[in-house]
Structure prediction request, 99 residues.
Amino acid sequence: MNLKESILLILSNKKAKRDGLHVKHIARHIHNLNNNLFSDANENGFDILKRKVNRILANDAKKKRKNMFVKVLNPKTNKFRKGYYKLRPTRLATTKTAN
Prediction:
C-alpha cells in the first residue's frame, strides 16, 4: 500500500472525516501500520515519513481540482489550523427526474 492510500484509509475514519488529523498523528498511524512491536523503531525513519506525508498532503491540498485532502479551518479565527488535514467532503449528484 502506498502512502496516499494509507493516508486515505486513516482519514476515512468517522471522527477524522469531521475534525481532521494532524500530520504527526497520520504519520504515527502509518508508521504503526507498517511496523510491529519488535521491529527497529528509529526516530529518523519516523521524521522522514512525517516529511513525506506532509509533502503529499500539502501538494494535494494546493490543487485547484481533483484534490482529495483539504486543510481544516479553525472555527474561532477562520484561519487554517497548522498541519491539520481532512478528506474533502463529497457532494452527491442529484438528478432530476422528468415527469
Summary: The chain has one domain: 3-87. The chain has a mean pLDDT of 84.
